[in-house]
Amino acid sequence: MQIYLPIAEIPVDPFVVIFMGAAVGFLSGMFGVGGGFLMTPLLIFYGIPPAVAVGTEASQIVASSVSGVLAHLKRKTVDFLMGGFLVAGGGLGAVVGIKIFRYFRALGQIETFISITYVVFLGAIGALMMVESLRALLRSPDAPRPKRKHRSAEWMAAMPFAMRFRRSQLYISPIPPIILGFFVGVLAAIMGVGGGFIMVPAMLYILNMPTNVVIGTSLFQIIFVTAIATVLHAAANQTVDIILALLLLTGGVIGAQIGARAGRRLKGEQLRALLALIVLGVCARLLFGLVTPPASPFIVEVVS
Amino acid sequence: MIRLIPFLFILATVTPAPAADIAVALTNERIAVDTGFSGAKLTLFGAVEGIATPRETVDIISVIQGPATEFKIRKLEKNKLIWTPGKARIINEAPGLYLTTSTRPIGDIAPLPDQAAYRLGADFLGVTVEDHIGDDITGSVFANAFLSEAEDAGLYHDQVGGIEFKKGALFAINVDLPANTPVGEYTAAVYLYQDGVLLGRDSAALIVNKVGIERQIYDLAHERPVSYGLLCVVLSLFAGWAAALAFRK
């Protein structure tokens, strides 16, 4: 069976797409990550035009983040004020990201640009995660774990307009969250990711937020930023394929449930080492695609 | 024109009336591309007139082509470590789809001047590259690359066989339109040959368009992109919420 995707303008097998959604959903349920950084490359490997993969993935992340954030809302582990500043920066970042995206698309280099961005980020994050989780696995269980500092860094304390973030138990300037949000917003628009893999460590180690509010607040900001990115991609590039997004979602929802159950059987360090391996694998595959001679040296496109 | 009429009249009476001719009709003049579209079968029906036993003695060539499209072609070049697309070159109008069907290889049926005149076969389409027309190596490299890419994509294809002679003068030509058939206006032409001589030709028009929900989504996304983007967000929000409800413990 084949379904013709209206925006990607290619026929795909819906079951393969649902399965891909389920596979990435499984991983994201297991590791507690959004999965955009795995889904977008997978769609590109499958033959979806990269620009459509990025635009469509943005809308799929909206859906998966909504279903994730509801539990956090109930547990009151979302810092709305912090989230608001992150969204303000993120919205601006998405606008800039779309501009960069359009610039490279007009040059005809968008595919290379997306691949290189992925290789850099997946490579860096994967390597960091790998080192960190291996260290944790090798560390003896009695050794004390690093504790959260109760004071923010000096450079952050020196910034103006400091205010109280009650849920995060912080008294800091809103400028660092806005800058962080902006940076992640740019990535969200260019890469078709939620950016949780940057946002979560940055919230923990730079903003110094407590662990319990980090995931909920990150999901909260991802919903808004990917929603903005979806509308911008649709408006500026016409690259959001709703049929593709709904197929991926169907698989993703089911996969995430199974993955969450499977994840409970593994230890945190093991999970992270495994995720690092997968991230490095995808990075290697993209790098391989960039450096190996193409099967056909020519690319033909319709001028629209 | 008025002065020409007597002359034409004389010409018509002097030239012997063509003994043989060909006529063609399509089973489907509209092909609908919907969400389930995975290619279509197209049948051209026709009749050969004025030949007693067409099955043994004539050759038929059919050419389905359309819609006139402008293409861009780029060559991947090694840039230090990685392969990046080079400068885009414009292919001056070429058909988006070009399918021939013939009883024997076209080169065996029609003489070269005919092949060139009627554009029988992709090599005779006269594909040119903008700013590289004429005796230009770059132009011919890219034009040839375009043809072979189009062939690999299944958009340009020459098929030998697939023409069935029915009872008497009737014949049917079966053509497979690929799943990536572009939408637009097409022509289906047939050429009747006997011993390398063109005896007659005919053509019919064909339209391929998008229909159904697929069409509506495409139109909405291109005509009202902001509304479409908002709709995508609303659908995603709803789907995420529904998923959370469905799996609530």
Largest beta-sheet details of chain A? 2 strands, antiparallel
Binned strand content of chain A: under 5%
Q: Indicate the low-confidence ranges of chain A by residue numbers.
A: none
CATH topology of the largest domain in chain B: Immunoglobulin-like
- Provide a count of the helices of chain B: 7
Provide a descriptive summary of the structure in words:
The complex is a heterodimer of chains A (304) and B (249). Chain A has 304 residues and is mainly alpha-helical. Chain A has helices at 14-31, 36-46, 50-74, 80-107, 110-138, 154-157, 175-191, 196-205, 211-237, 242-263, 268-291, and strands at 3-4, 11-12, 163-165, 170-172, 298-302. Chain A has one domain. By secondary structure, chain B is of the alpha+beta class. Chain B has two domains: 19-210, Immunoglobulin-like (Sandwich), CATH 2.60.40; 211-249, no CATH class. Chain B contains seven helices and twelve strands. In chain B, strands 2, 4, 5, 6, 7, 8, 11 and 12 form an eight-stranded mixed β-sheet that branches. In chain B, strands 1-3-10-9 form a four-stranded antiparallel β-sheet, with no helix packed on it. In chain B, 32% of the residues are buried. Classes of the chains: A mainly alpha (304), B alpha+beta (249). The interface between A and B is large, with 55 and 60 residues. Strand 5 (298-302) of chain A pairs antiparallel with strand 4 of chain B.
